[in-house]
Design brief:
Elements: H1 4-9, H2 27-30, E1 35-36, E2 43-46, E3 56-57, E4 64-65, E5 72-73, E6 88-97, E7 105-113, H3 133-142, H4 155-158, E8 167-171, H5 181-204, E9 208-214, H6 218-227, E10 234-239, H7 248-256, E11 271-275, H8 276-288, E12 294-300, E13 308-313, H9 318-324, E14 336-337, E15 344-345, E16 359-361, H10 382-386, H11 393-402, H12 405-410, H13 421-425, H14 432-489, H15 494-572, H16 580-621, H17 626-658, H18 668-714, H19 719-744
The structure holds iron/sulfur cluster (2 copies).
The site of one iron/sulfur cluster has 15 residues, from helix 13 and helix 14.
Length: 745
């Protein structure tokens, strides 16, 4: 059987499925040297420019950095650092739109060049063969090199391979239309590219090195053949032009005839592939200590006045590149990053060049018509015929539109290399790759969410187990302590007896506390009942007293009225004069009546004061009895008022009786009549006074009762206060009685 090398030497290659032959359009830039551009005014450096993770930030806003200085640090094998493309100042660190089909923003460093282009200190290594594999891998990793062919996979990971490598394939196919960056790089910097290949050879020690290059790059082929002379086991493989022969799986198939099945890596079959530009970057990093800070970019398209290849510093805004190539964007045409097949339209020309940017395409209206309109799939099957990954593009499209992620997985969506061959041949002008990219992004997002949810679930379950273990440990500990205590207490030692006593005392305390709480509760309930009953009793007594007072006052008023009528009749009958002793007697009676009324008032006042004193004591000693005291206040006030009214009535009657008549009686009969009236007046006054006394006595009694009730209610008044109140009430009664006696005498 013919070997791979024999086939290659004969110019026989395998064929991959599908593929297309679009117009190459490489002539726009292939005949012009790579141009060095002036340093732009600002560089925008996304922290992540590769597949993997962003490095840890090492600089801050305002910091001055030197050319080649690391701006981030690798903290993970899949994290590669970025470096300052020139010297200058970090002016900002914020999110900005990056070069991605999604148009998403990511964290970027903004560097303002100082135009000194001052390098940091470098360590040149003229002989890399003196370095260990580890040193070489470290240099590659520290230089931030990631696959520059478009994939962006960290190079130090890809070349750190312990498998036996049969084929190291250098990808110089550059099959995408318009792009000539690798072509020019080989032509102008072939020695460095070859140095990179030698370093990889030193690291991987492959059986064969195959440089795959399409036959549309004659100068580059010639240069490579010359540069590779003298190197063992290296073959420059001149391939027929067919898109996408530069795809990793497709180039492996073409050169070796091997199929890389879905979900496997080429290294599993002893194959490692690196891009020409990556080889250049490896050599620059290992030998010249130059990190990846610039790359060759094809700025092409008929929308440009001067399409050309340029050395672009990473972070250079696309707008700057276009302006350097005489871009005439009068009608704001679309600008594409990447080639016409695999590229994507930029959301803005402010996005920066990154490690994977190999082309900026500014096509004219004739090159890419914006008037194309998508129509329904006619199931012609041309897309499937063109697909180099042997997928079913039309079915992928339907599943992507339906967001059927399970079906997309079954259709091997992730084997799609987004070459765009299907869309290129589609007569319905369906932007198939656009749908695949969206579907891939959604699936990646969902996978990320699933991973996060799974991590959260694991954390939750771990916590649950930990809490259960803690609980069980606590319970075991308590059980052990209880068992030990029980054992101790049953040991009949003095310590055990002491513990028993302590437990018994604690139990007794608990019981006593319970009993006390229960007693307090019943006291509160009883007190509430007693207050309610007393309140009802007080109301009844007040009503009774009021009734009696009203009756007495009515009788007094009736008598006074009768007497007044009688006097009026007498006056009408001509009795005009009044004897002198009658007048004197009247004056004396009037005085007595006044004294009696004053005494009644004084007694009522005294009773009131006593009651108020008791109330004050009650309030001070027992705030809970405020309600009872308030009730008593009411009774006292009403009684006081009634006593005042009764005394006033008595005084008025006496006054009326003693009023001098206009005519004084002159004869015996008149005098006799006058005496008789005078007697009646005295009797009436005495009756009034007696009523007043009785009323005062009644007033005093409820007040005294209120005092007693208050004392009972409060249940806090000392016996001595109670005694005082009773003595005061007795004194008031005695005085009233004495006064009554003296008045009757
Ligand atoms: S090429 Fe276009 S129209 Fe034809 S089957 Fe594929 S998607 Fe449908
Ligand atoms: S873009 Fe994907 S589906 Fe379309 S031809 Fe290329 S590999 Fe196949």
């Amino acid at each position: 059987m013919e070997s791979v090398i024999e086939r290659i030497k004969k110019g026989h290659f395998w064929k991959f499925h599908g593929g297309i032959h679009p117009p190459e359009q490489k002539f726009l830039t292939s005949d012009k040297p790579i141009r060095n551009l002036p340093i732009p005014e600002q560089l925008v450096l996304p922290l992540q420019q590769h597949i993997g993770q962003a490095g840890k930030l090492l600089v801050a806003i305002g910091e001055h950095v030197l050319k080649g200085q690391a701006l981030t640090q690798s903290s993970h094998p899949m994290a590669v650092p970025i470096h300052a493309p020139t010297s200058g100042k970090i002016t900002n660190i914020k999110n900005a739109v990056i070069a991605h089909p999604s148009g998403l923003s990511e964290l970027c460093l903004f560097l303002e060049p100082d135009n000194n282009d001052q390098w940091q200190q470098r360590h040149i290594c003229p002989d890399f063969t003196q370095l260990t594999d580890h040193d070489i891998l470290t240099k590659i990793a520290d230089a931030g090199i990631a696959g520059m062919g478009g994939a962006g996979f960290p190079t130090h990971v890809k070349v750190n391979n312990s498998n036996k490598i049969n084929y190291l394939i250098i990808n110089a196919a550059e099959c995408e239309p318009y792009i000539t960056a690798d072509d020019l790089l080989i032509r102008e910097h072939c020695a460095t590219v070859i140095d990179g290949i030698k370093i990889l050879n030193h690291l991987l020690k492959p059986t064969h090195i195959l440089i795959g290059i399409e036959n549309n790059k004659p100068e580059a082929i010639k240069t490579l053949q010359q540069a590779s002379q003298g190197i063992e086991h290296i073959q420059v493989c001149i391939l027929p032009t067919k898109y996408p022969s530069g795809g990793e799986k497709q180039l492996i198939k073409v050169l070796t005839g091997k199929e890389i099945t879905s979900g496997t890596l080429p290294s599993n079959q002893g194959i490692v592939m690196q891009n020409v530009a990556t080889c250049y970057a490896i050599a620059d990093a290992v030998i010249n200590d130059v990190p990846l800070i610039k790359r060759v970019v094809s700025v092409s398209g008929q929308g440009l006045g001067k399409p050309q290849n340029v050395w672009a510093l990473l972070g250079t805004p696309v707008s700057y590149l276009l302006s350097q190539c005489d871009y005439q964007n009068n009608q704001h045409k679309q600008v594409i990053m990447g080639g016409p097949m695999m590229g994507f339209t930029l959301p803005t020309d402010q996005v920066p060049i990154v490690k994977t940017s190999n082309c900026i395409l500014a096509p004219s209206e004739q090159e890419i018509s914006s008037q194309t309109k998508e129509v329904e799939c006619i199931r012609c099957g041309q897309c499937a015929d063109a697909c180099p990954a042997q997928l079913l593009p039309q079915e992928l499209q339907w599943s992507a539109k339906a967001k059927d992620q399970q079906q997309l997985a079954k259709l091997n969506l992730f084997d799609c290399i987004e070459c765009g061959a299907c869309a290129y041949v589609c007569p319905s002008q369906i932007p198939l790759v656009h749908y695949y990219r969206i579907a891939k992004a959604e699936i990646r997002q969902q996978q990320q969410l699933d991973i996060t949810a799974e991590k959260a679930k694991l954390r939750f379950e771990a916590r649950k187990i930990r809490l259960e273990n803690d609980k069980k440990a606590r319970e075991d500990k308590h059980k052990k302590a209880a068992a030990a205590r029980k054992e101790r207490m049953n040991s009949n030692t003095p310590i055990a007896n002491t513990e028993k006593s302590a437990v018994a005392a604690a139990l007794a305390r608990v019981k006593a506390k319970k009993a006390q709480a229960s007693a307090q509760q019943s006291t509160i309930e009883n007190s509430t009942d007693v207050n309610a009953k007393k309140s009802n009793s007080d109301n009844a007594a007040t009503d009774n007293s009021e009734k009696k007072t009203q009756v007495a006052a009515a009788i007094a008023r009736a008598k006074a009225k009768k007497l007044a009528q009688k006097e009026k009749n007498q006056a009408t009958e001509g009795i005009v004069d009044k004897p002198l002793d009658s007048v004197t007697q009247s004056t004396t009676d009037d005085k007595k009546s006044k004294i009696a009324a004053a005494v009644v008032k004084a007694k009522a006042k005294k009773i009131k004061e006593t009651a108020l004193q008791v109330k004050s004591d009650s309030v001070t000693k027992e705030p809970d009895n405020k309600k009872a005291v308030s009730s008593m206040d009411k009774v006292i006030l009403e009684s006081d008022k009634k006593a005042k009214v009764a005394a006033a009535i008595a005084k008025a009657k006496a006054k009326k009786l003693n009023e001098p008549t206009t005519d004084v009686p002159k004869n015996e009969s008149e005098q006799s009549l006058s005496k008789s009236d005078d007697k009646k007046s005295k009797i009436a006054a005495a009756v009034a006074k007696a009523k007043a006394r009785k009323l005062a006595s009644k007033i005093a009694e409820p007040a005294e009762e209120q005092i007693n009730v208050s004392i009972e209610k409060t249940n806090t008044a000392k016996p001595i206060d109670d005694k005082k109140s009773r003595v005061a009430a007795a004194i008031a009664k005695a005085k009233a009685k004495k006064q009554q006696r003296s008045e009757s005498i």
